Amino acid sequence: MQLPITFQAGLWGWLAASSLLVGAAIGFLVTLPQKVVASVMAYGSGVLIAALCFGQIPDAERIGGLWPTMAGLLVGGVVFVLASQFVERLEMHHRSKDAGAMVALLIAVGAFLDGIPESLGLGLGLLDGGGVSVMMLVAIFLANLPEGLASAAGLRAEKRGGWLVFGLWGAIALLSGLAAMAGPWLFAGVPPNWLAFALSFSAGAVLCMLVDTLIPDAFETTHAWTGLVTLAGFMTAFMIDHLV
Known about the structure:
Helices cover about 85% and strands about 0% of the residues. The chain starts with a helix and ends with a helix. The chain has 8 helices and no strands.
């Protein structure tokens, strides 16, 4: 018996978000060179860019046309940037007060802010008779891995216990799965132009996230190699798209 689309989306969302816990475990238990973490960030960025360019954005345009897709991209990008700026200001404010617990919470909020559009796009891909995008699944998994790793390593350096690290990232993984479920639940049966808007909204937010956070963080460590590692991720996703 086939599961309802909403539950399928949730399962795929939790699978993609499980790398947050994998990364958190590695970051808390093992000390990895920063270049390794940065390289995974750059590689995951390349995979995500390809997944959006070859999968999600063309799907949105096919379903609802050019202008709903363009509108969704713009609104998604603007919403992400505004929300990211708000969280960043809160984090800077609490860092000035040396409130370690609040900083850890705000880091988690920022990670969930990244995960909302990713998980939403993964779930929306199941609508209109579609299936889960293997490219998108792999891309989200790879993008989440260094995020959980870097944050857990930072929390360990602040002498935070394992219960906080794994409780925090376990909650984010759970909420990411719920965000994936929300896509089909909210948008099932809506007109095609609104479905296209929702898909491209997610894509616009993810693209801004890559340029604002993941790629600059990777560049700080890998410098000139960042472009080649990102290209390797893009080529991998392109190959997967043609083989799967």
